[in-house]
Amino acid sequence: xxxxxxxxxxxxxxxxxxxxxxxxxxxxxxxxxxxxxxxxxxxxxxxxxxxxxxxxxxxxxxxxxxxxxxxxxxxxxxxxxxxxxxxxxxxxxxxxxxxxxxxxxxxxxxxxxxxxxxxxxxxxxxxxxxxxxxxxxxxxxxxxxxxxxxxxxxxxxxxxxxxxxxxxxxxxxxxxxxxxxxxxxxxxxxxxxxxxxxxxxxxxxxxxxxxxxxxxxxxxxxxxxxxxxxxxxxxxxxxxxxxxxxxxxxxxxxxxxxxxxxxxxxxxxxxxxxxxxxxxxxxxxxxxxxxxxxxxxxxxxxxxxxxxxxxxxxxxxxxxxxxxxxxxxxxxxxxxxxxxxxxxxxxxxxxxxxxxxxxxxxxxxxxxxxxxx
Length: 373
Fold this sequence. Notes:
Blueprint: H1 2-56, H2 60-66, H3 72-86, H4 90-101, H5 107-121, H6 123-134, H7 139-170, H8 181-200, H9 207-225, H10 247-261, H11 264-269, H12 271-276, H13 282-295, H14 298-307, H15 310-333, H16 335-349, H17 353-371
Helix pairs in contact: 1-4, 1-8, 1-9, 3-4, 3-5, 3-17, 4-5, 4-14, 5-7, 5-15, 6-7, 7-13, 7-15, 7-16, 10-13, 13-15, 14-15
């Protein structure tokens, strides 16, 4: 009897010792899988840029004649609507650079199309807030966070649009280039040009843009999956309650999270569940949104380097610089006034269904009007 009990105890101890070991192995495998997903997403991103660049030239008549993208206002509306359609701004920004590289649009057209893509991408946060309302969550909190993200993005980007166009026209930053761009392009050409040739063997050249766009969407989805999944308790958000009242801290946090995720949609979308659980309030997230809107250009900057087009790099650099200048001035000079006006505007829009409906219709009509100016 004692021998049997001792045996069972020994087996139990062995199992207890084995479980942590298995858990460590499973954790290591999950991390390895995420690393693998990252490299796959990076491979697909570079392949997508290569394919889109190859196919963009044959789409020139379609973009110019059918969509009437012939001036900066058209490009702004086109990028805005394009981002609505795909619910993401980064692929549209990459498309703008490939259009510019192919001569479909000029440099100012590429600049405004990228700006439009960011305006359209901010709509995703409002859409997620609407989903939370459908799930029975608080209507005011969910929609207010989405509206705030959209309005802050719109107000800062439209001011930055004027600043950026002045910088672009001046030519002051044309000489600022990434010196290793040509080497990186040569290295990627050796790998991806043969793959492009395979696609050209059975597809028309214009269709490579669509194939590349599909690949870039897949690459962003894979990149999202390779990010660590942390619960609110694990990320210790609750312990940062004092820091969220500091505008510059929230600004750096928004910039940092977006830099890691390379997606403003991801970094801004987490504001909705955080606000629902009471970790952040509307007045605390305005600097966060500003920071996120700057570092969201990292993937677009990589696309410009891969294209090895100096003009493309200048466009993205000016996008980043102009939005940084506007955000810094707001935070340093009149942040309290800006915060008050933004919150009043959100409160006014969400006051009743009629005002909310008018706002929603407006943000759908404005890019359409711009497209046909």
